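Fig. S4 source data, part A: sequence.
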Amino acid sequence: MPDGCPSWSGEHARRWLDALPSRWVPLPYRTRQLLTALSASVAATALLVLPAGWQPWAAALPALHGLWLYARPEIVPVSAPVLAVLLVVLRPGTTWPETAVAMTFLALVGAAAVPRLAARRRQRDRARDAASGVTAPLPDSGRPLPRGRFLIVCGGVLLALGLAAVVLVPAAPAPDPSEAARTLPALAWLVAGQGLTTLVSGLLGRRRAAALRAAPAPVLRVLVREGADGDTEVFAADDTAALRPLFRVAVTEAGDAVGETGEMTRDKTGDEGEGDDEAELDDLLARMDREGPGPLREALLYGVPCDGAEILLVTAAEAADGPPVVERSTGPVRPLSGATVRRLSAAEKRRAAREASHAELRRAAGETVAREREREAGGGAPTGIRQWRAGLLDRLRALLLVVWAGVVFWGDTGGWRYGLAALAGFVGALWLPHWVAWRITADREGLWLGGLRGPRLLPWDEIRTVDCTGTELKLDSRRASFTGWSAHAPRWPWLERRFGLLHPYERTAGEITALWRDPSLRPSVSADRGQRSRPLWPLALVAEAAWAAALLFLS
């Protein structure tokens, strides 16, 4: 810890939060919102191209501004005025009202981007005030900087492909063109715009990360924890109850720990290094299995946090005897507004209530199987094997998917559907047998999990996960070479709560967990070859043949 390093107190944190823009300015706090903005830009482009008849570039560029407002507001103050002038001069829309609507949208986007950029300056100033002039060089200042490389490469490739498609695909099709002739140029512009977004994100992230390491950076003492979605949440140093997260940021470990001198230590080699690798793997598996946020830890924050900034954290290890860990930011800082915190808190309460309800269902199922196994063992005879199979809900899901595929592929015309239908049939033949005929068999050795090529054994002492999360029943092993097993079935939690119903997956997970936790309840005999489950590949061949026959009949 640098000499005189101040704590980011609640008072300074409140002043930093007060610098956020008004609540009507969008502040994305998770990647899912960016994907939603991208989907919205694609939908808006399609509407402007097909029903409205706009030129491809004019349909794609206004729609991309919605994505830039979320992902890269730095582009908007330059691009929005230029595009507005082009819309007025070139008149790509069919009517003046359509052009006026596009102009209004650009004005709103610009009006939201400018306050967001101005708020960054205020946040930087107040973060520096909180640091009281204390600075220190970053622990990884002399290390190679990987930040932004992947985004720069991907963005450059997408931008090049999009621009090449813009040049090669005719932008002004003939009169009465087909839908493809109108949508392909617009799609090319969208790909180029997405490439530009990704490229600018990589360049800005790398530039800001390099600037952070170019000179001693302000340092603050904070509290951090790993959020339920994997991002790190940062709190004020006196917010020991974790009531108000200030911002979220995606981080990754720099690879080494911090020694007593404050410098990064090298990785260990030999048997000691192998032991560390095993401990790190166990820690990673435990974090993946954990529900909800992780424990609150002390940390040092290097840098000036603001919307879009790059930072570095030196955090206390979750283990009591572990050394501090250096974590670089792999994404921008995303401040959390008050409304966002309230939504996240409400969602966390709903998740906790749902998990408590599911835990009670699993406990009841575990008690049921325990009583059944005790009754079986009371007669002195060896307890037999136990099996769980696909049920009505699994088959209903498969039937609905087949019906949906039939409506999609035979409700349209065109030769393209046969090739796509053949591909869908191949994929469906690989998955449908598992959905309608999965089987789990428990015997003395462990769990036999059915599959296309035959059953796989998951020994009792190698089980890592037996869980029912939402619509998924999941089993996994501690062995890295073991591919996790899962099954999915529809469920309606409100019906289960209203009528006290127990979903079959909850009962299956509870019964398997009871056998896993209590060796005395496990079967005392081994399953023979027929009981373990048969290979499902014959059923896959039948499904593929039936699908191919349907294609031939309808062609």
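Fig. S4 source data, part B ends here. Residues 139 and 263 are 6 Å apart (CA to CA).
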